[in-house]
Each structure stands twice: as structure tokens, then as C-alpha cells.
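Possible regression after last week's pipeline update?

I re-ran a chain I had predicted before the update to compare outputs. Posting the input and the new output here so someone can diff against the archived version. Not blocking, just want to make sure nothing changed silently.
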Amino acid sequence: QVQLVESGGGLVQPGGSLRLSCAASESIFSSYEMGWFRQAPGNQRELVASITSRARTNYADSVKGRFTISRDNAKNTLYLQMNSLKPGDTAVYYCSAAHSLFPTLRYWGQGTQVTVSS
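New output (post-update):
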């Protein structure tokens, strides 16, 4: 089973930046689509950004121009660079991996809290 471990969350002021990391237990980027999701209290879990095995990226409209998803294949690590953070970005952020050929083969990290507040 693939293990995903997020890190990098914390408290930041509006306008600040954070970089989230997701470490995978094995080399999966060639076969899996990776994504960052977030969930705030009382809300549904929503897709923030994704990157396919062919490195195509997609972003939610609310974060375009502010967030960047990337990966380091050698380190088996996925990143989410978050700039110009807003209070509305406050949520638990989750890393996810879905197999490109068998998308029901899905893995989730444990989540990391991001709080944007002055």
C-alpha cells in the first residue's frame, strides 16, 4: 500500500506563504495522478490542484495565480507552493494519489492544517 505523509502546514498571516510537502513511500509519479485537496469545517472536500503522470496541471479558480503544484521525482515528493494566502484558504489540506489506469486505486495522506489569520 502506498503511504503519503503531508507536512508544512501551520499558522500564517494573510498575504504570507507556505509550502506543503507530500512524501510518497515509493516511486509512483509515472503511474499516478497526484492532487491536493482541502476541507474547511462545514464544507465538502474540494480539489485545489492536480498534476498528471505526464505533468499536466490543473487548478481551482480560487487559487489560480497564487498556488503552484509541483513534484520532485527523485525525492518521491509532491509540493504545493501557496502564496498570497487569504483567510479563505484556511482548511485541512490532503495529498492524494490516483492510479492513471485504475483511478479507483486511490490513496490519501493524513492531512495538514493550514490557518491564515492575522
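Follow-up from reviewer: compared with the archived run. The chain has no helices and eleven strands. Marking as no regression found.
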